[in-house]
Amino acid sequence: MNDQQLQARHQELREQYRQVSEQKLNLDLTRGKPSTEQLCQSDALDGILANDYLCADGSDSRNYGGIMGIPEARKFAAEYLETIPSRTMVGGNSSLQMMYQVVIGAHFHGVNGPESAWMAEASKTGSQVKFLCPAPGYDRHFSVCEALNIIMIPVTMTPEGPDMDQVEALVKADPMIKGIWCVPKYSNPDGVVYSAPVVARMAQLGKIAGANFRIMWDNAYAEHHLVDTPPTLANILELSEAAGTLDNVVVIGSTSKITHAGAGIAFIASSEANLASLADQLGISTIGPDKVNQLRHMRLLKDMDALRGLMQGHRRILQPKFESVLKALEAGLAEKSVNGQALGSWTKPQGGYFVLFDTQPGLADKVVKLTAAAGVKLTPAGSTYPYKNDPNDSNIRLAPSFPSVKDIEAAMRVFVLCVELATIEKALGL
Known about the structure:
By secondary structure, the protein is of the alpha/beta class. The protein has helices at about 5-20, 35-40, 70-80, 95-110, 120-125, 140-145, 165-175, 195-205, 205-210, 235-245, 270-280, 290-300, 305-335, 365-375, 405-425; strands at about 25-30, 90, 130-135, 150-160, 160, 175-180, 215-220, 250-255, 265-270, 335-340, 340, 345, 355-360, 375-380, 395-400.
């Protein structure tokens, strides 16, 4: 379009935006929360124990103790995380809390006595503790580092996972890099599944990293598929054991987006030594997790076949929502360009909870503010990068799981409008 055509289109869009704003919409695509319909799939948890509180080993789930989790939950976690029960720990509803406990324990207390604490090494060397953060990535991971004043180093994400040349070079050069955050399957927010070569190289990092390096392998979406033939993820625990680096890997999962999000169970797999250290640290603040809830989940889920059957129900609910987002983007933006450039690009995830949209450089924050003023809330621009600093100001995370299809369609009409409006205003210098 020439300038005259851009001006005319701008006037059209501004009038459409005025009309939309007058509708006083109140729509929210900010976070990947399960919908009420999804939560209802697991309402059989209520009353499922029928006054039978005994675990597989005969212990009473209502009593104190069992900091590692009940036996049947550890067996289930081992199958979910592709390891053995002795290398699993099952906790409460929050995998994020377990991850925070791992990091804070290593940071202040050490994984093998006080001398192994990251802060102790930083004090001796006059340096600072650092973490690698594949970006775009998960904002709550970044919040853990910010809370502990751990320096975050962004790492480029590729279609196969983190840029491993970059990761290896950084780790070799600085022994104070003590970890890396990973969402290896249907990565938050870009939906990437780490390739087998990337996972194999990850498993070798413990050989070249500084002491007590940890890979935080947050496999939050392991069973959250949107396709008939989902991609497979290589087993980092198996590869790490073969490489002699099992101590360097912590794998995390949960039922938070499988059963009741606020009342699920979370689990960790790592080496026996790591779990013993974690159990000692947790033992200061708790005598044990909610074992009654663990038992409820085991009576409901039973095994991975039962879980996967439940997840097919989630897919039936989620798939139309993702299709609605992608349909709106294709219809509203796919054939349009300004100054020879596409109005944006987006992912088509095979699973997980997000669609990632990239505007032309410098427009994400403006688009998010425009949509908010028109009644559609999105995750703040920059949230998918450490320190909320998206160097291109282009990354927007769309989370369609919670709203209805009707609300998503309404929200996406606003979003598409705001993307085109912001892009044309940029071209016109407005």
